[in-house]
């Protein structure tokens, strides 16, 4: 795209015609992750100053949609899947299956570029962690988190998410 090297990097800096041309010239890939798993990962990485997962979740809920960190904002508000027609949506936990296909579609040698991914171990570990962390939350926090991430839960098939139960 002709303005690839322009100073503006956010789509909002371009007009609609430029955005359409730019997006049409790229293969668009969206990587998604269960919002509850994202919260667990951020807590474990020390993204908040909270001593417990429950207080970290309360920080996230108190910060709200507009004042919160991009790290925990709902994906729908960041990636605009209703406005941008992504060519591929790759779900965390299925990377081993989906990345090989994506690389082959791009004409790249999938086997030599991919690290060994153990999706089933990742899914089991996050299931266990989710159970532990979810049990720390109050019923009100669980309900508020489900509301906070309701558009992500509606847009993507996180069927085993604790937030969709």
TrEMBL record:
Its EC number is 2.8.2.-. Keywords: Carbohydrate metabolism, Glycoprotein, Golgi apparatus, Membrane, Signal-anchor, Transferase, Transmembrane, Transmembrane helix. InterPro entries: Carb_sulfotrans_8-10, Sulfotransferase. It is found in: Golgi apparatus membrane. The keyword Secreted does not apply. GO terms for molecular function: sulfotransferase activity. One of its GO terms (biological process) is carbohydrate biosynthetic process. The keyword Transmembrane helix applies. It is a single-pass type II membrane protein. GO terms for cellular component: Golgi membrane. Its main location: Golgi. Transmembrane segments: none annotated. Belongs to the sulfotransferase 2 family. This is Carbohydrate sulfotransferase. The lineage of its organism: Eukaryota, Metazoa, Chordata, Craniata, Vertebrata. The gene is Chst8_0.
């Amino acid at each position: 795209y002709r303005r690839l090297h322009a100073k503006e990097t956010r789509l909002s800096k371009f007009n609609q015609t430029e955005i359409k041309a730019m997006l049409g010239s790229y293969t668009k890939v969206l990587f998604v992750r269960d919002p509850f798993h994202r919260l667990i990962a951020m807590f474990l990485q020390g993204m908040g100053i909270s001593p417990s997962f429950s207080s970290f979740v309360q920080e996230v809920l108190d910060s709200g949609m507009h004042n919160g960190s991009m790290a925990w904002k709902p994906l729908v508000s960041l990636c605009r899947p209703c406005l941008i027609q992504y060519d591929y949506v790759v779900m965390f936990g299925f990377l081993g299956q989906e990345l090989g296909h994506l690389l082959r579609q791009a004409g790249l040698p999938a086997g030599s570029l991919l690290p060994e991914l153990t999706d089933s171990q990742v899914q089991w570990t996050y299931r266990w962690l989710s159970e532990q962390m979810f049990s720390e939350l109050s019923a009100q926090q669980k309900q508020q988190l489900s509301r906070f991430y309701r558009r992500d839960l509606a847009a993507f098939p996180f069927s085993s998410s604790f937030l969709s139960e």
